[in-house]
Amino acid sequence: MGLFSKKRKDITLRVYRTNQQAQMPAEEPEQIPEPLVAHDEEQVEGMWEKCPECGSVIYTDDLIANLNVCTNCSYHFRLSARQRIMYTADEGTFVETNADMIGTNPLDFPGYDSKIRKIRGYTNEKEAVVTGACQIGGEPAVLAVMDGFFMMGSMGAAVGEKITLAIEQAVREKLPFIAFTVSGGARMQEGLISLMQMSKTSAALTKLDEAGLPYFAVLTDPTTGGVTASFAMLGDVTIAEPNATIGFAGRRVIEQTVKQTLPPTFQTAEFQLEKGFVDMIVPRGALKETLAKLLKLHKGGAAK
Amino acid sequence: MSEKRSAWDIVQTARDPKRITSQYIIRHVFTDFMEMHGDKLFADDAAVIGGVGFLGDIPVTVVGQEKGVDLRDKVKRNFGCSNPEGYRKSLRLMRQAEKFHRPVICIVDTQGAFCGIGAEERGVAESIARNLMELSRLKTPVLSLFIGEGGSGGAIALAVADKRAMLENALYSILSPEGFSSILWKDSSRAAEAAELMRMTASEIQEMGLIDDVIPEPEGGAQAEDGGKFAAEIKKYLIRNVNELMVEPIGSLLEKRYAKLRSFGQNAVVTK
């Protein structure tokens, strides 16, 4: 943990109130979550955070030092894309790509422009995915890291395009590709164009596959809808964070369809492991090491 | 039907209980059709009809989403809402088509994949994702025909194709207008308003460049009880296009298919 407890000036830290979105049935948040603390780590000091799972009150510094995992019950707080990258990439190795790519408003959807402008201001991100190349335990890889705080990580044209470009970069530079998914699904406001990003990203993965390059999907809370039904489920190795919600249809929609109340374990990472759709559940503290090992194991076997 | 109709009118036509379904097309367009059942993994999903038959004198594989024609049939077919087995059966039959160099005709008509417990347990998302990936590189021509509702992931799983055509009153959308309005406005009664906004009708989708062709329908929409009259138009369209796709060398066909998929949404991003 020593690696992460020291202050890093290159990346700002945010802690979010996450329990208000513990279940995310759709692409649209009820309200935009406000960051609990400001973007500067200095302001975090002396503050406390309550775990939405067990209710423990945790000193924020301790929480950050523990990779935003509850020190009492191991609840994995949701992370921004930048936090995720900080926890994954070797320090100073991440080189972002297509940072300025944004979506337009293809349907002229009322209010979409102002809404997304507001979210840009508040998250300091331009879109719901951050892409780039980095090293993990000294092993190079291309990353696409979704940000659940940006319109619920919904996939519109820009998200699909950035992910596709990242896959293409991996193919071009003969690098493994790693996606961290968190998404409510397709972005409603961009209509059918959002749906098309499912086929685009999935098709791009055939190029990686045919080049013999590995793709590791890391499914984080929550991964649902069109993202699950496309690149999230197409990894050579599929990893999930403990207790992450992973599914296709929203819980409420299923409950309304089948007229039953679903058990709390439904659509969790553990459920997906039991049903055979994820290879392993890896706690956040072991994730970087796991990815580094997987990267080494997939550098090419000796068999003829 | 040349006068401008509202999107909501078209939604009603697409959902007309008397509208044609995949069974109509299979009966009237193809000859010697033989149905193949099951995904060879778990079950047979009656929400998808798959099999082989002749399109004129061309052997083809047909995979069609089927909502059912009467109440009993609708229940059997889960109202066209497929479980994972439906997508896995589709992919199995498409791979068979690839092996025997048969073109694939996909018929899209679904509100979406089934939102059930079993569907989640058996990985409906994985089954759709796998279809999207494998269809994009399937080494045989694929043509997708939208005949009614084309809802969400459930529709796109059969719509990765060399040619995408929609009947004039068919729909293709990210989800139903009811679902769209309930998610965005917490009010499913604003579905008509949502339908206008969503651009889910054939002509609007063609304008966006997301489908290739729109096939005009008879006055009042395509009705199943027309004795197969409209099927003749569909057959003509399919024969002409399948013939065009079949003469294309498979390498360039796949390159074009990929280029098309790759282009989706590229005009909806900017770098600032």
TrEMBL record, chain A:
Cofactor(s) demanded: Zn(2+)
Pathway entry: Lipid metabolism; malonyl-CoA biosynthesis; malonyl-CoA from acetyl-CoA: step 1/1
Keywords: ATP-binding, Cytoplasm, Fatty acid biosynthesis, Fatty acid metabolism, Ligase, Lipid biosynthesis, Lipid metabolism, Metal-binding, Nucleotide-binding, Transferase, Zinc, Zinc-finger
Catalytic activity: N(6)-carboxybiotinyl-L-lysyl-[protein] + acetyl-CoA = N(6)-biotinyl-L-lysyl-[protein] + malonyl-CoA
Keyword Transferase attributed: yes
Cofactor stoichiometry and binding remark: Binds 1 zinc ion per subunit.
InterPro entries, per database record: AcCoA_carboxyl_beta, Acetyl_CoA_COase_Trfase_b_su, ClpP/crotonase-like_dom_sf, COA_CT_N, Znf-ACC
Domain CoA carboxyltransferase N-terminal: 47-304
Binding site for Zn(2+): C51, C54, C70, C73
UniProt-listed SUPFAM superfamilies: ClpP/crotonase
GO MF term set: acetyl-CoA carboxylase activity; ATP binding; carboxyl- or carbamoyltransferase activity; zinc ion binding
ZnF locations on chain (C4-type): 51-73
EC number: 2.1.3.15
Cellular compartment(s): Cytoplasm
A biological process from GO: fatty acid biosynthetic process
Description of how the protein assembles with itself and partners: Acetyl-CoA carboxylase is a heterohexamer composed of biotin carboxyl carrier protein (AccB), biotin carboxylase (AccC) and two subunits each of ACCase subunit alpha (AccA) and ACCase subunit beta (AccD).
Described purpose of this protein according to its UniProt entry: Component of the acetyl coenzyme A carboxylase (ACC) complex. Biotin carboxylase (BC) catalyzes the carboxylation of biotin on its carrier protein (BCCP) and then the CO(2) group is transferred by the transcarboxylase to acetyl-CoA to form malonyl-CoA.
Similarity remark: Belongs to the AccD/PCCB family.
Full protein name: Acetyl-coenzyme A carboxylase carboxyl transferase subunit beta
From TrEMBL, chain B:
Pathway: Lipid metabolism; malonyl-CoA biosynthesis; malonyl-CoA from acetyl-CoA: step 1/1
EC number: 2.1.3.15
Gene3D superfamilies registered for this protein in UniProt: 2-enoyl-CoA Hydratase, Chain A, domain 1
NCBIfam families the UniProt entry points to: accA, AccA_sub
GO molecular function: acetyl-CoA carboxylase activity; ATP binding; carboxyl- or carbamoyltransferase activity
A Pfam family of this chain: ACCA
Biological processes annotated in GO: fatty acid biosynthetic process; malonyl-CoA biosynthetic process
Function: Component of the acetyl coenzyme A carboxylase (ACC) complex. First, biotin carboxylase catalyzes the carboxylation of biotin on its carrier protein (BCCP) and then the CO(2) group is transferred by the carboxyltransferase to acetyl-CoA to form malonyl-CoA.
Ranges of residues in domain CoA carboxyltransferase C-terminal: 1-244
PANTHER family membership: ACETYL-COENZYME A CARBOXYLASE CARBOXYL TRANSFERASE SUBUNIT ALPHA, ACETYL-COENZYME A CARBOXYLASE CARBOXYL TRANSFERASE SUBUNIT ALPHA, CHLOROPLASTIC
Protein name: Acetyl-coenzyme A carboxylase carboxyl transferase subunit alpha
UniProt organism field: Christensenella massiliensis
One Gene Ontology term, aspect cellular component: acetyl-CoA carboxylase complex
Superkingdom of the source species: Bacteria
Presence of the UniProt keyword Cytoplasm in the record: yes
Cross-referenced HAMAP family: AcetylCoA_CT_alpha (MF_00823)
Compartments, as annotated in UniProt: Cytoplasm
Quaternary structure and interacting proteins, as annotated: Acetyl-CoA carboxylase is a heterohexamer composed of biotin carboxyl carrier protein (AccB), biotin carboxylase (AccC) and two subunits each of ACCase subunit alpha (AccA) and ACCase subunit beta (AccD).
EC class name: transferase
Leader peptide range in chain numbering: none
